[in-house]
From TrEMBL:
One of its GO terms (molecular function) is L-serine-pyruvate transaminase activity. It comes from Aromia moschata. One of its GO terms (biological process) is glyoxylate catabolic process. This is Alanine--glyoxylate aminotransferase. It is an enzyme of class 2 (transferase). Residues 41-366 form the Aminotransferase class V domain.
Length: 390
C-alpha cells in the first residue's frame, strides 16, 4: 500500500454522553435512536418507501399544509435553504432577503451563487421586522421572492408571519420561510399564512439526528418550479425529480439519490412522537419551558438580548454575557464538568451572548432546571477564574 492504515483507526471509537442545550442539534429520544440503529435498508425497498410516505404526512402536519410537493431533502437545514433558493430562483431573478441574523446572510450568499440578484433589508440584532417595513421593501424592490427566517438561532429573535403571505402575493412575490430553529416551538401555518416555500431541520424540535431537511412548496411555487426556463442549477436539489422519488405526484419513483434509510427511520419516529403528543401541546411545552428559563435567568441576575418577550424565540434564548465573565470559561466549564452544552453566540452575537436551546426531547422542566444550575455554577467559576488572573 502507498498509504498505510491509520493507527488512530485501530483505537476504539468512544462517544461521550452529552446533554445538548445549545441551539441544536438537540438530543434524540431513545425511541428515535433505536430507529436510527436498525439495519440499513436499500433506498428503493418498500419499507423505506413506506416510511418516506409516512414522513410526508408528518411533515404536512408539522407545517400545517396540504401541499403536494412535500418531502425531506438529504442534508441538514442548509440543504433546505439551498433547495428553496435553487428551485425558485433563476439567473437574474431578484430575491429580497430579510436579514436579522446569520441565516439571512447565508441565504443572500447562496442566492447570489445561483446567479440571482439578492437585495437585503436589515434589522437590529435584537429586533424583528414589522409588516410595514417588509411591504415597503417589497414595493421598492419588486422581487420574485421574499426570504425570511421565522426564528433566528443566532439572535433568539422571533419573526411573526401572519399577513405577510397576502402582502407578498399582492406584489406578485413568493414567500419563503426558514423554520429550522422555530418549528414546533411557535405556531406555524403554511397554508393559512399563504407561505410558498418552507423548510426546517430534523435535528431541533423534531428530535432526530441532523441530515434531513423537511421542505414543502405551495401549488404556486410548484408551478414556478415546473415552468422554469432553465433546469435547477443543482441536480441534487431538483424538486421536479426529487418530488418523484418521494412519490409526491403519484407516479413512478425513479432513482434520484441514495436516501439514508436510517435517517428516514429516525425522522419517521421523531414525527410520530410529535403526532402522538399533538402539535399544540408540543408548542405549549416549549413555551412553558422558555418561561421557566426566563424566570430562572432573571433570578441569576442575567439579562436577555431580546428585551420584549413577544419578540423572543422560545426554542433558543440569547443571554447577554455579563461584563465580568469570559464566555468561553462558562461554556467550557459546563461541558467539562456536566457534559452540558451551552453555546456562545453566532454571527452577529459572537462573544456577546450565551445561547440556550430548549428543543424536542430536551424541552422539559427538568432540563431547564439542570441548565440553570449548570449556568449558575459556571458563572461562579468564570468569575473566580477571572479574579484569580487579576
Ligand atoms: C445552528 O443552527 C446554530 O444556531 O448554531
Amino acid at each position: 500500500m502507498d498509504v498505510s492504515a491509520p493507527v488512530i483507526l485501530k483505537h476504539p471509537l468512544v462517544i461521550p454522553h452529552r446533554i445538548l442545550m445549545g441551539p441544536g442539534p438537540s438530543n434524540s429520544s431513545p425511541r428515535v435512536l433505536h430507529a436510527v440503529g436498525q439495519t440499513v435498508l436499500g433506498h428503493m425497498h418498500p419499507e423505506v418507501f413506506q416510511a418516506m410516505d409516512e414522513i410526508k404526512e408528518g411533515i404536512r402536519y408539522v407545517f400545517q399544509t396540504n401541499n403536494e410537493l412535500t418531502l425531506a431533502v438529504s442534508g441538514a437545514g442548509h440543504a433546505g435553504m439551498e433547495a428553496v433558493l435553487s428551485n425558485l430562483l433563476e439567473r437574474g431573478d431578484k430575491v429580497l432577503v430579510a436579514i436579522s441574523g446569520i441565516w439571512g446572510n447565508r441565504a443572500a450568499d447562496m442566492a447570489r451563487r445561483y446567479g440571482a440578484v439578492a437585495k437585503e433589508i436589515l434589522t437590529e440584532t435584537e429586533n424583528n421586522f414589522s409588516l410595514a417595513q417588509l411591504e415597503h421593501a417589497i414595493q421598492k424592490e419588486k422581487p420574485k421572492l421574499l426570504f425570511i427566517v421565522q426564528g433566528d438561532s443566532s439572535t433568539g429573535v422571533y419573526q411573526p408571519l401572519e399577513g405577510l403571505g397576502d402582502i407578498c402575493h399582492r406584489y406578485n412575490c413568493l414567500l419563503a420561510v426558514d423554520t429550522v430553529a422555530s418549528l414546533g416551538g411557535v405556531p406555524f401555518y403554511a397554508d393559512r399564512w399563504k407561505i410558498d416555500a418552507v423548510y426546517t431541520g430534523s435535528q431541533k424540535v423534531l428530535g432526530s439526528p441532523p441530515g434531513l431537511s423537511p421542505i414543502s412548496f405551495s401549488p404556486r411555487a410548484q408551478k414556478v418550479i415546473f415552468e422554469r426556463k432553465t433546469p435547477v442549477a443543482v441536480f441534487y436539489w431538483d424538486m421536479t425529480i426529487l418530488g418523484q422519488q418521494w412519490n409526491c405526484f403519484n407516479n413512478v419513483r425513479p432513482y434520484h439519490h441514495t436516501v439514508c434509510s436510517n435517517l428516514i427511520f429516525g425522522l419517521r419516529e421523531g414525527l410520530a412522537i410529535i403526532a402522538e403528543e399533538g402539535l399544540e401541546h408540543v408548542i405549549k411545552r416549549h413555551q412553558e419551558c422558555a418561561q421557566r428559563l426566563y424566570k430562572g435567568l432573571g433570578s441569576l441576575g442575567l439579562e436577555l438580548l431580546v428585551e420584549e418577550e413577544h419578540k423572543r424565540l422560545p426554542t433558543v434564548t440569547t443571554i447577554v454575557v455579563p461584563k465580568d465573565v469570559d464566555w468561553k470559561e462558562v461554556v467550557g466549564y459546563a461541558m467539562r464538568t456536566y457534559s452540558v452544552e451551552i453555546s456562545g453566540g453566532l454571527g452577529p452575537t459572537v462573544g456577546k451572548v450565551f445561547r440556550i436551546g430548549l428543543m424536542g426531547y430536551n424541552a422539559t422542566p427538568e432540563r431547564v432546571d439542570l441548565v440553570l444550575k449548570v449556568l449558575k455554577e459556571a458563572l461562579e467559576y468564570a468569575r473566580s477564574a477571572r479574579t484569580a488572573k487579576l
